[in-house]
Structure formats: structure tokens, C-alpha cells
Write a structure and sequence with these properties.
Largest sheet: 5 strands, mixed
Number of strands: 7
Number of helices: 12
Helix content: 40-55%
Distance between the termini: 37 Å
Radius of gyration: 24 Å
Strand content: 5-15%
Length: about 290
């Protein structure tokens, strides 16, 4: 189960290796789609006690075979460039196959930093230069057309993930949710979950996506879609409780408001809603419930 924005930025390439074809077109690369793609082990640990792991590692075999190492980068990290150089050189030494490093970012500053070539060696001769490909909000398209999203669901999901901090992401998410209405559940579920995790639960885009899934994709039964709908129902019931209390002219303190909106137990919220109809005070709706007065 994907559990973070960081995971989604690279795991989406594991789930949809063909996504790199769409990314390469966006980046203007002369890329020929491979005959097959193999997901390789991501453990690059040496026999010495120095553990290094690339986020996602794929092998593309065709007219020109190569390895694709995908790294999710959320902020500048001065130590990361040395790790990337290690990954590239180690992969080439181990697999005897040319490696390509793709860094996925969610903000322009990090993306521009990651895109800088990293020469390794003295100024007069760079023995190795690391030149990452970078996919981020500066070059990933804003896919706001449902037909375009349908043509490449994984690219549309990556578009949403990389533009998670951009207010325009709402248009991408609406296009994606519309496109997902016409595909089988087995196809939609991973896209729904990766997008939700990539956006992050604490961002406005994450909340917007969860609401879209709860409404537009209510017929899907995936883990994340069920979780989203449960959250949506809980949020709606909490709002109903506060509305009833306020409509009856009762004073609703910040403590009561926080307790109600912070509760995700549907049975307890139902009890509070029933009590709100006749309660003498806002605080009295908590009297006698399972979690204490």
C-alpha cells in the first residue's frame, strides 16, 4: 500500500512502466518504446555496511536497452547529488547497461536544482557528470481535458501529483475523475490511490480529490475510495451536528467544534446528532457517550 506523496511519485512508474513513454514525449526525448519493461530490485546495498536504495528501478529492453532509476525529491538536498552519482555508476557496473536517472519533483525550485548537471572530478576534467532528467511542475503538462486524461491515465495522475501545489491542479483532478468513470474498477483503483497519496492528505488538492472520488467515483470500492467516502460522510455528519446546534441558538465553543470535527467514528457522530436535536447545551451532546463525557 502506498502511504506517502514521496512513494507515489516513483511507485507510479512501477505500476505503469509505460508512463515513461508519455513523460519522454513531454520532455522532448527521442525515445523508442521498448519491447518489454522489467521491474528490478531497488536494493543497491554493497557487501560493506553502507545501505543505498534507489526509489524505483526499471529495465527497458528493446532496440536500445537501458535502466531507469526514478527518484522522488521533495526538497533540495546537498547530499543527494553524491547518492545519484553512486546510483548511476553502481547500476552501470552491476548491470552493464546504460542507466538513466529521472527525478520527480512537486515544486519548481527543487526541480530546477535537481536538473543541474553534477560534474564529478577536478574543474579541468569531469570524470563523471550526472545529468538527471527532471519531471516537475515546470515541464509536466496541465492535463485538464478528460479525453486527454483518458488517453494516458498514468500521465494524467503524474500531472496531478507534480502540480499538487498549483491551484490549477483542481482542473487536472476533475479531468482525471471524469476519465476514470469510463474504465474498469481494476484499472481505476491504483490510479485513485496513487493520486490520493501523491497529493497528500494535508493539502487542499488532496481534500479536493477525496471529495471528487466520494462523489464522481462513488461506485468504486477500493481501499482508498472507501476510506474517502467514510471521511466524507463523517465530515458531513459533523457539519450537520454543528448546524443543528447553531440553528437552535446554542453557544458552540471552539472546544466543542474541534471535538465534533475531529471525530471519525460514524456511530458516535450519529449519537451526537440525535442528542443535538434536544440538548440543552452544546456540551451536553457528549454526555454518556462511549469515549466519556
Amino acid at each position: 500500500m502506498v502511504n506517502s506523496s514521496h512513494e507515489a511519485m516513483h511507485r507510479i512508474f512501477q505500476e505503469y512502466p509505460g508512463l515513461f513513454t508519455g513523460v519522454s514525449k513531454v520532455l522532448g526525448l527521442p525515445f523508442v518504446p521498448p519491447d518489454r519493461v522489467t521491474v528490478l530490485p531497488t536494493d543497491l546495498t554493497e557487501t560493506r555496511p553502507v545501505e543505498r536504495r534507489v526509489d524505483t528501478l526499471l529495465r527497458f529492453d528493446g532496440d536500445e536497452s537501458f535502466l531507469l532509476a526514478v527518484e522522488a525529491q521533495s526538497a533540495k538536498d546537498p547530499d543527494k547529488t553524491a547518492s545519484w552519482a553512486y546510483y548511476v555508476s553502481f547500476l552501470f557496473a552491476k548491470y552493464k547497461t546504460p542507466p538513466v536517472l529521472l527525478v520527480v519533483c512537486q515544486d519548481r525550485i527543487t526541480a530546477e536544482w535537481a536538473a543541474q548537471p553534477v560534474p564529478i572530478g577536478p574543474q579541468w576534467w569531469a570524470s563523471l557528470t550526472v545529468r538527471p532528467l527532471v519531471a516537475g511542475p515546470h515541464n509536466m503538462p496541465l492535463i485538464t481535458d478528460p479525453d486527454e486524461a483518458s488517453a494516458d491515465l498514468a500521465l494524467a495522475a503524474l500531472s496531478a501529483i507534480t502540480h499538487a501545489k498549483n491551484p490549477a491542479v483542481d482542473g487536472i483532478l476533475k479531468a482525471l475523475s471524469t476519465a476514470l468513470q469510463n474504465v474498469p474498477e481494476a484499472v481505476a483503483d491504483p490510479i485513485i490511490e496513487l493520486t490520493a497519496q501523491g497529493l497528500g492528505v494535508n493539502r487542499p488538492a488532496g481534500e479536493f480529490w477525496r471529495n471528487l472520488v466520494a462523489v464522481d467515483l462513488s461506485f468504486y470500492k477500493s481501499y482508498i475510495s472507501e476510506e474517502i467516502r467514510d471521511e466524507g460522510r463523517a465530515q458531513g455528519r459533523a457539519e450537520d451536528i454543528l448546524l443543528v446546534l447553531e440553528a437552535r441558538g446554542l453557544d458552540v465553543s471552539d472546544e466543542v467544534r474541534e471535538r465534533v470535527t475531529g471525530c471519525d467514528d460514524p456511530d458516535l457522530l450519529r449519537d451526537w446528532l440525535l442528542r443535538a436535536v434536544t440538548a440543552s447545551s452544546a456540551e451536553s451532546i457528549f454526555t454518556g457517550d462511549r469515549e466519556g463525557a
